[in-house]
Amino acid sequence: MENGAEKPIGFMSRTLSPVEKKYSQLDKEGLAVIFGIQRFHKYLYGRTFTIMTDHKPLISLFHEQKPIPQMVSPRVQCWNVWLRAYEYRIIYKPGRYHGNADALSRLPVPEIIIQEEENDQVLMIDVLDDAPVNTAQIRQWTSKDVTLSQVHEFILKGWPTVTEPQIMPYYTRRLALSVRDGCVLWGSRVVIPPQGRGLLLKLLHQSHPGMSRMKGLARSYVWWPKMDHDVEKEVSRCEDCQSNRKSPPTAPLHPWEWPEKPWTRLHVDYAGPFLGKMFLVLIDSHSKWMDVYPMNTSTSFATIEKLRQSFSVMGLPQMLVSDNATCFTSTEFTSFMKQNGIQHVTSAPFHPSSNGLAERAVQTLKEGMRKMQGPSIETKVSRFLFSYRITPQATTGLSPAEMLMSRRLRSTLDLIRPDLKMKIQQKQWNQKCNHDTRAKLRSFSPGDDVYTRNYGFGLKWIPATIEDCSGPVSYTVIIGSGQRLRRHVDQIRARIPVPSGDLDKFLNEQDRTLERSPELQLDKPPETNNAQLPETTSPG
Question: What does the alpha-carbon distance between residue 225 and residue 179 come to, in Å, rounded to a whole number?
Answer without folding.
Answer: 17
